[in-house]
## 1
Amino acid sequence: MGLKNEIFSLLLCVFMGIVVACVSYPFDVDELWPTAEMEGRGSWMGLNLGIAIAVPSGMGVALSILGNNTSSLVGVAISASLLPPAVNCGMLLTFAALASTYEDDVVDRSYMIKCGLASLCLTLVNIGCIFITSVVMFKIKEVAPLENKSAFWVDLKRHKKNKKRGRG
């Protein structure tokens, strides 16, 4: 269920970027886009910065789950590392698709496509970093998933002790 939700959420973010690009299209954004922020999220060098944001986000996710505090901290961490590049991907790819309707060659279609795909890669790298960092944090904190439950975690030491007693 978690992977399905992740894919659905990612597609929803990309779709929101498509909507923003379509709504903005009539307002002659061809000379304004891509902005410096959009280019930063759409560059291959931006992957390094994305990793630097995603690793602490993964730690925040793990610590929030362990502390039974899965509210605002996780939302902010995920929003900072996943939403902007996913929405940027949808905006840039849509803008590249609409670029052929402009009369002059103000828009470099191939550049927009490259930036959009780099944004998608950044999103996927961020998802991977958050997942890996969370798993590492769970290992450091010695927690393990409960059997037959994917959403709840138990202290590994207590789990091992209960297994020895025959309660686990």
## 2
Amino acid sequence: MSDVVSTGQLAVGTTPSSGPPRRRGAAALVGPAAVALTAGGALVVLAKVDPNQPGHYPTCPFLFLTGMYCPGCGSLRALHDLTHLDVVGAWGMNPLLVLVVPVLLAFWVAWTVRSWRGTPRQRVIPALWINVFLGLVLAFWVARNIPALGPWLAP
């Protein structure tokens, strides 16, 4: 039964609701589980199908059109190396990705715990940190296309 009477106001002794009650426990883990299964499946394929062999995956569109590396160039090869526990090889393909993967895992764990407990979603990262991260990605993008830095940053 609704707490709202025909006048559009709350009935006496009720409080406004912020929507349906939050799911807790296993039912709340559908989102995190779907992400984990999708990412896990993609990583299994990536572990089996080597991106270093030509023809298995498409070329980076930015690299194809401009001849310059984007911040994501080498990510498939880096993830392939990480699935084989080759952190040094992954670092050589895309150091930014190697630094971002643990952060993404931490966010996923926080999301999973928050979903399990039924706590409301909060802003995880202040806007300043998002801007700092985007600035670092832009700096990495520029730096990996400087010929003198190519041996360290190019895939």
## 3
Amino acid sequence: MQAARSAGIDNDALSLIARSDIELEGIPDERKDAKTDFLPAAARGAATGGAAGLVAGLVAIAVPPIGLTIAGAGVMALAGALVGTWSSALIGATVPDPVRRQFEDEIQAGRVLVIIDADEPSLQHAEASLRAAGATPLPYEAASAAT
């Protein structure tokens, strides 16, 4: 992690994944990566549910017999976001994290994965520092909050 920090990677862009029996006591909890897809799934559910609720509310406004107001459309969007967050979080809690799924063999072999969530120029700059520190880059490309 120090090699990534010295290459200019922000602390918020770093996390760790390791086997559960490996001691990571010196690492703060916010740096330890979760075992499930709970938070990303909840965020996707909130966005999708909110959009679906908003569309349903706007359609209901367009149909005069329903008599829904603009405030009602907002309430439907909020309800959609809540239902989407709840249902997606439940599903995400049971699905292993995508990085953990892809590199399960590495994790079970006792390796600690340092995950860097940054844009491409930052990753390229950090790669030389990580290699010099003895890290082996593993290929993983996915869209994230940072990219």
